[in-house]
Write a structure and sequence with these properties.
Blueprint: E1 5-9, H1 19-30, E2 34-36, H2 41-44, H3 55-70, E3 75-80, H4 82-90, E4 98-102, E5 121-126, H5 134-144, E6 147-151, H6 161-174
Parallel strand pairs: 1-2, 1-3, 3-4, 4-5, 5-6
Helix pairs in contact: 1-6, 3-4
InterPro entries: AB_hydrolase_fold
Protein name: Alpha/beta hydrolase
C-alpha cells in the first residue's frame, strides 16, 4: 500500500528520464510512495506558442494527472524549473499534500507570477542560477515560511542532485 503519490515534472527541454526527477523517483519509491514522471517534451517543442512551448497546456496536463491521483490518496507535486512552476500553480487547483520546487521561476512572462497553495513546501535553489535570480526565490520562500536549501551551483543543479534528493526525502518524511 502506497503512502501517497508523487508527480515529478521535468524542466523545459529536459525529459521524464532527467537526472533530478529520476533521483526524486528513487527517493519516493524507497519511502513507499508511488510516482510518475509525465512527459511534457511534446509541449515544450511548440515554439510557435512561446519560447517555452505551450506552458498553459503543460499546466493543464499536470492538473488533470493530479486530479486523477488525488482521488486515490495524498499527492505531492515536485518539479524542476518550468516543472516547479507548473507544480506550484497546479497546487492552486488540486488539493495536494506538499510541494517540492527546484529552481522555480518566480515570473513566467505573460503567465501568472509564481504562487502556490498553503501546503508544506520545500525549495532548492542555486546561488549562481544564471536564469532565475536567487533573491526573488529567497523572498518567495520567506513569505511562505517554506524550507529553503540554497546551494553553490547553477540553474541545472548538476553538482547537487544528491542534496536535492535528500531535501525531497525530508519533505516526504514530514508528511
Amino acid at each position: 500500500m502506497s503512502r501517497g503519490h508523487c508527480i515529478l515534472s521535468h524542466g523545459f527541454e529536459s525529459g521524464p528520464d532527467a537526472i533530478k526527477v529520476t533521483a526524486l523517483a528513487d527517493v519516493a519509491e524507497r519511502l513507499g510512495w508511488s510516482h510518475e514522471r509525465p512527459d511534457f517534451m511534446d509541449l515544450d517543442a511548440k515554439a510557435d506558442v512561446s519560447r517555452l512551448g505551450d506552458v498553459p497546456a503543460r499546466l493543464q496536463r499536470l492538473i488533470e494527472r493530479a486530479t486523477s491521483a488525488v482521488a486515490r490518496g495524498p499527492v505531492v507535486l515536485a518539479g524542476s524549473s518550468l516543472g516547479a512552476y507548473i507544480s506550484a500553480i497546479a497546487s492552486l487547483h488540486v488539493p495536494v499534500a506538499g510541494l517540492f520546487l527546484m529552481v522555480p521561476p518566480t515570473t513566467m512572462g505573460p503567465m501568472p507570477a509564481l504562487d502556490a497553495a498553503a501546503v508544506p513546501t520545500s525549495v532548492v535553489h542555486a546561488w549562481h542560477d544564471e536564469l532565475i535570480p536567487a533573491a526573488g526565490v529567497i523572498e518567495w520562500a520567506r513569505k511562505r515560511s517554506a524550507s529553503l536549501l540554497m546551494v553553490n551551483d547553477g540553474h541545472r543543479l548538476n553538482d547537487h542532485v544528491a542534496e536535492s534528493a535528500a531535501a525531497f526525502e525530508a519533505l516526504l518524511r514530514r508528511l
